[in-house]
Amino acid sequence: MLRVTFLGTSASAPTLGRGLPALAVRRAGELLLFDCGEGTQRQLIRYGTGFDVAAIFFSHFHADHYLGAIGFLRTLSMHGRAEPLQLYGPRPAAKLLPTMLFTGVEALSFKVEIHEAEPGEAVRRPGAAVRAFATSHGIPSLGWAIEEDARPGRFHPDRARALGVPEGPLWGELQRGRGVSVAGRSVAPGEVVEAPRPGRRVVVTGDTRPCAPTVEAARGADLLVHDATFGDAEQERAAETLHSTAREAGRVARDAGVRRLLLSHLSARYDTDPGPLAAQAGEEFPGAEVARDGLAVEIPLRE
User: Fold this and answer.
1) What is the pLDDT of residue 152?
2) CATH number of the domain encompassing residue 286
3) Are 99 and 218 contained in the same domain?
4) Are 34 and 57 in contact (CB under 8 A)?
């Protein structure tokens, strides 16, 4: 399972219908959190994602993207969490997070490990990597790409039998990519196993202007979640504040050849009527959608 749940899709301040930025990704039995705006823990409860967060990946350290972690960690401690929690983010994570999270408060029941990441660094998770890439937001900022490992190709029992390979351990050897010998004849994995199948990829930009590193990180991705704070009428404002318009997000998705685009981080003016943003992005990338709080998206396996 690879499920993406939008916990907060507003920009800068919460609205009646949208919380501050946070996104949950459930895969391989673990829960990863991307940004943690104020109120995130309530959204986790509201949308049933669970509290078993293994790691939080921050895109940058503007307040609307990380202040929710303060209360969330306190709640985890109150619930008696024992497992370590990993925190990843760009500079100045190593200075800022200890000060914000631990100054003048009681000790937590679990260990928190803080890591500063640079573009290109990859964090290993079970069967996947979470890779940082550069974004353009005026302060140190990162996007994150969840990249699953390739899956083994399909095994063809009929081919194996035709080559005289008996069912049992030798089949397992071939599926693990190791050749076998049967009656003096070598059988290579490629004779009975198809090429590896690509893993799924989900790319989350955080706040950013459209930029080449995002296009490269998102190339061919199953899902791109992109900043779409403004519409066409606010193009100058988007450039001034180093955010993107919905149309610009659509162009990034088009240039990257992604399979699906979801727009997030919306200005309050689009809280109840995001239709114009979907329409503008859709002119560049047909099928573009605007995310809403509570939206859960299942990413199917690639064949």
Assistant:
1) 85
2) 3.60.15.10
3) yes
4) yes
Same domain, 50 and 130: yes
pTM of the model: 0.92
Per-chain mean pLDDT for the chain: 96
Give catalytic status of residue 64 as yes or no.
yes
End-to-end CA separation in angstroms for the chain: 15
139 shares a domain with 9? yes
Of 35, 52, 64, 158, the catalytic one is: 64
The 112-116 sheet, strands edge to edge: 112-116, 85-89, 53-57, 30-36, 22-27, 2-8, 296-298
Residue 194: CB partners within 8 Å, gap ≥ 6? 153, 154, 155, 156
The answer to the question of residue 110 being in a domain is yes
**Residue pair 21/10 in contact by the 8 Å Cβ criterion:** yes
HSE value, Cβ hemisphere, 13 Å, CA-based, for 2: 17
Specify whether 169 is located in the same domain as 114.
Answer: no
Sign of CA dihedral 48, 50, 51, 57: negative
Number of independent structural domains in the chain:
2
| Residue whose pair of structure tokens reads 């290579």 in the numeric block | 188
Distance between CA atoms of 69 and 73, rounded to whole angstroms? 6
Kindly tell me if the per-residue pLDDT of 103 is higher than 90: no
For the chain, give the longest Cα–Cα distance: 74
Range of the domain at 145: 2-150+198-291
Q: Looking at the structure, do residues 27 and 108 belong to the same domain, yes or no?
A: yes
